[in-house]
Amino acid sequence: MMDVPLNAWLLFSHAPTHFGDVEIVTRFESGDVHRTTYEAFAGRAQQLMHALDHLGLDEQAPVATLAWNSYRHLELYFAVPCTKRVLHTLNLRLSADDLAYIIGHAKDRAIFVDSDLVPLLEKVGELPTVDHIVVLGDTVPDTSLPNVVAYEDLIADAPTSYPRTDIDERTPLGLCYTSGTTGRPKGAVYTHRSTVLHSFAVTSAAGFGLGPQDCVLPIVPMFHANAWGVPHAATAVGAKQVFAAGSLDPAAIVDLLATERVTVASGVPTIWLTVADELSAQQRKLPDLRHIVSGGSQPPRALIERYGREFGIPVAQAWGMTETSPLASVSWPKNHMVDWDDERLVDVVRSQAGLPLPGVELCIRDDNGVEVAWDGKTMGDLYVRGPWVVDTYLHGDGAECFSEDGWFRTGDIAVGSPDGYFVIADRTKDLIKSGGEWISSVEMEAAIMAMGDVAEAAVIAVPDEKWQERPLACVVPRTGASVSLDTVRSHLEQHGFAKWQLPDRIELIDAVPKTGVGKFDKKVLRARFS
Amino acid sequence: MMDVPLNAWLLFSHAPTHFGDVEIVTRFESGDVHRTTYEAFAGRAQQLMHALDHLGLDEQAPVATLAWNSYRHLELYFAVPCTKRVLHTLNLRLSADDLAYIIGHAKDRAIFVDSDLVPLLEKVGELPTVDHIVVLGDTVPDTSLPNVVAYEDLIADAPTSYPRTDIDERTPLGLCYTSGTTGRPKGAVYTHRSTVLHSFAVTSAAGFGLGPQDCVLPIVPMFHANAWGVPHAATAVGAKQVFAAGSLDPAAIVDLLATERVTVASGVPTIWLTVADELSAQQRKLPDLRHIVSGGSQPPRALIERYGREFGIPVAQAWGMTETSPLASVSWPKNHMVDWDDERLVDVVRSQAGLPLPGVELCIRDDNGVEVAWDGKTMGDLYVRGPWVVDTYLHGDGAECFSEDGWFRTGDIAVGSPDGYFVIADRTKDLIKSGGEWISSVEMEAAIMAMGDVAEAAVIAVPDEKWQERPLACVVPRTGASVSLDTVRSHLEQHGFAKWQLPDRIELIDAVPKTGVGKFDKKVLRARFS
């Protein structure tokens, strides 16, 4: 067989000839909408390749972006790796401190930054490794930053065609730091090979099922695990792409979903909660939307049910991590479940984190490293292995995350079902270890959030002399509603929790603190209450 | 990223844990239906792995099958490569002579044969390279063949679990000979890597879109380019698989499609023609069938239209060759075509051989090797390149098929459209070269077959002193209908053919001769009429 390397050119090369007429749409926070085509995109991305050469950036130089989702960010997604440089997507929700650490740790040589994020970059302070700053627009705003040029000036005069090379597939293509809820952020390095294989998996019907027929809206930042691989995959198959640049306002999302006739959209549960309320309020239907993908954390059961019942839209849960590129599993029903009613489907399929994609292998092990039964009950540590799973972090960080037999220790606690699906019961560090038994904080949170009076809830472990740890429920009541320890305990008892599992203490709070990527930040709660 | 090799184990490993409850159904020619599950399949395949070791077959030994589609054939699909041996699927439509040549050329060490094909194998004569013959069943029929055992006896006592090894992805996995319409058959060698990548492409929404939700019926033999990759891909994603063992009777196919609630089926146009007639006759609906894939040759436009209009089933054309694993392209509509009416979709999309899959690159070149325009008119030689395209044949045969710059010369004449699709205008050797201009025999055949009085038609070139070559129409009239040169010429003229392109001669025949894989065998017609 031909020794064709799996590299970014393989994903990029169809754009001009085969998908030249397909649209790429960007909606800016102002409401302005920019429309282009794959043909124009391919030309501009190749102009950018020349411009990167012109900047004198070495092979394998890290080129950072500090940017929202947009067509220009997509150009960078291909131009940087197609010239053998490494795209480093910076998380714009991080503190200036963390950004300074990451930029220095990665040794970024250039930063491409959105105009409105220039003030954030200014706050980062000295950037000793960085030679070039490029503002993603026509003009450069007033800034104290040195060596700043405008993106459009940078690429303006370059040719729209760039000579393709057969980049070796093990060459690094991208870099993304974990959000770092424990310790300093660590860098996950994606290769050309891992990205191509991951892209194939995203287009698989076992993945997101992306094809030329689709219009996809990743409501996931391009700085967070490559927007779950959607921009690479969509470009490879010529799906129409829609980007929402800037902060995510549910009304704008609903408007984009409807007017662009999006067929597949991906986002975290928090987004889908706000979108559901907006859809209800507007009484809007989305007949083109085939399914939505929910990932990043376990969505509440009520949310999954609501999309099915109220909007007729199936929710596919996806699971993965920055370290798994990120897509590792999606919860599709199997063929023999075709006639099952919604409740049974939610029980067995949609409430689960999925079936692993072809190529990805999962195992669930006990504390002694022995695989546990897939019986729907037994919790264990989730390990993952596959050609798009990291086997090290940048500069050798985090060696403790890799097992001796070649698996990645996810830090998640999972339960496998007899049907072959699995669910994340908790993060290892959030699990409540009470009297030798384990209590899943995630499961308890989901149950509490199913209460009508509850807006949000997080359950944390607090130290206990007798039991080692006990659960504490931090609850955000809905406006005007009242929630007490007794109502929470009796609700949980009615929903299958054993007496010894029930929380002994409740704290009413205004909001659950969130991390830079919108996940519950329990370390803040632990610091406050334990 | 983890250096996980792309090998058959990666496709096989999910079967027991994640898809154990999914069915694999085989319908035999007798009408008997055999049902099993992925769990049982995984156990039996691993028993077979032990049995292959027990037979003393070396690493990389070619292990042949002479068999219909069935669950046992599927077991061989995985057991042979998972033990580093090479699965050689023999085409049971070939002559005993060709089979003798191929078995000797490949140096097959063992042959697994269906009971009813034992007489064919007896006709092949001496099998000097073959040490073992295994009959796929419980018992061995009376035979003159030596060293014959029954499959069920062979595997009966072996353990159902086999130790997995990390097979290098460049290791050969399979072997399939081209049908050989020119010269001796040539062997295409598939590797573990090429097969895994091809399987991902088959599951892609840009390919067949196979996922866990699906039930797939490949009405394509497992001895012909791995049934277009469906068994590998379906196993990787846990789709329910349905096999029709033995000759293909349209009533049996329709019955299987309906009773097993098939969602995706693949076959050649001839099959879809007979299935359409059967569906009409039975007035049967197939509400579960999402789409059918038609490949192997250009389907008549009327057939594509009929499936849409009469049955509401979209036809996706696929194009590929034994040398391309085989799937290289599928003709899906793009997102902006969602509201197009059927006629326009057939014009622009469904009448085309497709958009190339991610990973596959196509180019169309003139006689001087220069790329021609994708203008919907200009014909040229089709070249293909990709990680699942051969770069040589077994033992170095057919070196003339590979260009110096690393592309495979398909032997097809293609026309690219401005929309990025392409269509096969002809085989290079079937093209009619008249007075310096090219006439596509395929296009003319399709037009003639659209006539109500015509059942089948093949157009061949006959030598001509003045024009070099001229078209001759070989026409099979429908029962009771009459067709003449004049009616054919006037029909073609009405349908856009120029005067100089019209055939000067017609031959009425009883049937168009077919090759072992059901394609028009024009060399027989050329021998008869030129």
Average per-residue pLDDT of chain A, rounded, comes to: 94
Q: Tell me the name of the CATH homologous superfamily of the largest domain in chain A.
A: ANL, N-terminal domain
Shape of chain A: globular
**Overall number of domains of chain A:** 3
The helical percent of chain A reads 25-40%
**What portion of the residues of chain A fall into strands of 2 or more residues?**
15-25%
**Oligomerization category of the chains in this entry:** homodimer
Total E-strand runs of chain A = 25
* Sheet with the most strands, sense and barrel status of chain A: 9 strands, mixed
Question: Biggest interface pair, residues each?
Answer: A-B, 70 and 70 residues
Q: Ranges of chain A with pLDDT <50 over ≥5 residues?
A: none
What's the alpha carbon Rg of chain A, rounded to whole Å? Answer: 23 Å
Number of helices of chain A: 17
The termini of chain A sit apart by 60 Å
What can you tell me about this protein's structure?
The structure is a homodimer of 530-residue chains. Chain A is an alpha/beta fold. Chain A has 3 domains: 8-248, ANL, N-terminal domain (Rossmann fold), CATH 3.40.50.12780; 360-428, Luciferase, Domain 3 (Luciferase, domain 3); 431-529, GMP Synthetase, Chain A, domain 3 (2-Layer Sandwich), CATH 3.30.300. The first copy, chain A, has a 9-stranded mixed sheet, sandwiched between helices. Chain A has a 7-stranded mixed sheet with strand order 7-6-5-3-4-8-9. In chain A, strands 17-18-19-20 form a 4-stranded antiparallel sheet. In chain A, helix 11 (250-259) packs across helix 12. The longest helix of chain A has 17 residues, at 38-54. Chain A starts with 7 loop residues before the first helix and ends with a helix. Chains A and B meet through helix 2, strand 9, helix 8 and strand 16 of A and helix 2, strand 9, helix 8 and strand 16 of B.
